[in-house]
């Protein structure tokens, strides 16, 4: 398994962690297990950390399909390594940091960390088209 595919799998697991964190954090505010076992006619609004984790999860799933498609395209075309590997590393580690940073509501750090993940996607895209990446120019 290449490093990029390993990081893609870890990113998918991170997506599951986002869903679980948002679900668990909002459960009590929505009515606990009674609400969860019901038909959920109304989702119910959440506040505080639960709302932040819900937004973090939504944000993850806005970027993950792009990352996954590019990593898979790189794997199919044999473009692993270089910028693709750097990009996969940047994306995964930034997204891993993003969840607790957003969940705890740490100001001024969330946006730059999101930016690092976006730069990671850019590296994967560039590597797919032959850019060597950091140290390989």
UniProtKB/TrEMBL annotation:
Q: Domain of life, per the record?
A: Bacteria
Against Pfam families, the record matches this protein to: MAPEG
Keyword check for Transmembrane helix, yes or no: yes
Which keywords has UniProt assigned to this entry? Membrane, Transmembrane, Transmembrane helix
Primary localisation category: membrane
Subcellular localization, per the record?
Answer: Membrane
Chain ranges passing through the membrane: 60-78, 90-108, 114-132
InterPro entries, A to Z: MAPEG-like_dom_sf (IPR023352), Membr-assoc_MAPEG (IPR001129)
List the GO cellular component terms.
membrane
Entry's PANTHER family?
A: BLR7753 PROTEIN (PTHR35371:SF1), INNER MEMBRANE PROTEIN (PTHR35371)
- Identification of the protein by name: MAPEG family protein
Q: Which organism is it from?
A: Methylobacterium terrae
Q: What is the lineage of its organism?
A: Bacteria, Pseudomonadati, Pseudomonadota, Alphaproteobacteria, Hyphomicrobiales
């Amino acid at each position: 398994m290449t490093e990029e595919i390993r990081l893609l799998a870890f990113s998918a697991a991170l997506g599951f962690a986002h869903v679980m964190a948002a679900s668990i954090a909002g459960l009590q505010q929505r009515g606990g297990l009674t609400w969860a076992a019901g038909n959920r006619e109304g989702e119910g609004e959440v506040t505080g950390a639960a709302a932040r984790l819900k937004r973090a999860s939504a944000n993850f799933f806005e970027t993950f399909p792009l990352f996954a498609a590019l990593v898979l395209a790189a794997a199919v075309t044999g473009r692993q390594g270089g910028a693709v590997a750097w990009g996969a590393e940047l994306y995964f580690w930034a997204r891993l940091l993003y969840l607790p940073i957003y969940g705890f509501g740490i100001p001024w750090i969330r946006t730059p960390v999101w930016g690092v993940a976006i730069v990671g996607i850019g590296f994967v895209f560039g590597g797919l088209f032959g850019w060597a990446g950091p140290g390989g120019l």
